[in-house]
Amino acid sequence: MTTITRTDDLALFCETAKSAPYVTVDTEFLRERTYWSKLCLIQLALPPASTPKDQGGEAVLVDPLAEGLSLEPLYDLFRHGGTVKVFHAARQDLEIFFHDAGLFPQPLFDTQVAAMVCGFGEQVGYETLVRRIARANLDKSSRFTDWSRRPLSDAQAAYALADVTHLRVIYEFLSAELRKNNRESWLAEEIAVLEDPETYITRPEEAWLKVRTRTNSPRFLAILRELARFREAYAQDRDIPRSRVYKDDAMIEVASTKPLTEADLSRSRLLLREARKGEIANGILAAVKAGIEARDLPQPRDEEPGRPGNAALSDLLRVLLKAKADASGVAPKLIASSAELDAIAQGDRDVPALKGWRAEVFGQDALRLAGGEIALSAKGGMVRVVPVG
């Protein structure tokens, strides 16, 4: 097992990789104590060598924590269009590279997304694909390793390399399946979302939208918006987890009680001690004041999707989705979410389920069902689409 700690060794490997049709990639990182993920290890593997075949291709570990190591040769490989970069469940890996280097590996292939397109279920795990496609089992003993500690043991290194060596077999199988089923364009649509910078940008002014609350008072939401804005900006600037500033339940409490002084903050049941004084306390009080004085009040969020009179259509769309998903061998949630079905039922036509490959599989018939042009019929345990009129 080779661990690369020098820039020239990484450059040599990456130059070799540029002549390969693909390279499999994975990362190990920590995020428990930071806002941004801390990259601790990179695993890379090339296709199996032609001779001797039983040895497989070259696989290496790259230690980004090694003193003096530059990852620019890797980023140069990521920019090289002649080699496909293969990941499994790439989103967190891509977020790291986008934040650290402002780029996405291209061309990109995500085996988790490809597996869903090929009928392996929703958000299928790597271990499942290794077992079902590579016919192997993973050693899970190093799963909870602190990857920032050095040196790595042989067992840890072997565990990390297994994440890219088995991935070669999985990629070759899934890419062949996509070609056979003419679904490469389906995968390309999903990859486009992963390569969109907007997927990885969290703007402080939008952070409140991710906070779950049962209160829909516009003034309460205005205060919540300002508190979430401050927390997000503070956490990003100092690279600490949001929960180290204050947790969601404490933020909701503050938005409800509207403290105006540090003395008021001291009576909070849920705020951390560090948040009741100093910089964070000042930020909280300023956010509460801004929310109280805000004129651009957020609109209340609907507690329940859909509107009265559309529940029956939503239910019919769910039945249609299940039938279409079964027929196409694609995970239902990859085609349409529950919220999208409710949106279609209440007249919204600007939803992903009605665009691209999803329109072919489901969206066109969903619109026909909503427009009364087709009905659903059950026969022998199967649901069929029946024209009306």
TrEMBL record:
Domain HRDC per the UniProt entry, residue ranges: 217-298
Protein name: Ribonuclease D
Family annotation (HAMAP family): RNase_D
Keyword Cytoplasm on entry: yes
Catalysed reaction, written as an equation: Exonucleolytic cleavage that removes extra residues from the 3'-terminus of tRNA to produce 5'-mononucleotides
Domain of life: Bacteria
Main location: cytoplasm
Cofactor(s) required, per the database record: a divalent metal cation
UniProt organism field: Paracoccus sediminis
Similarity field: Belongs to the RNase D family.
Statement: the UniProt record of this protein carries the keyword NAD: no
SUPFAM superfamilies: HRDC-like, Ribonuclease H-like
Function of the protein: Exonuclease involved in the 3' processing of various precursor tRNAs. Initiates hydrolysis at the 3'-terminus of an RNA molecule and releases 5'-mononucleotides.
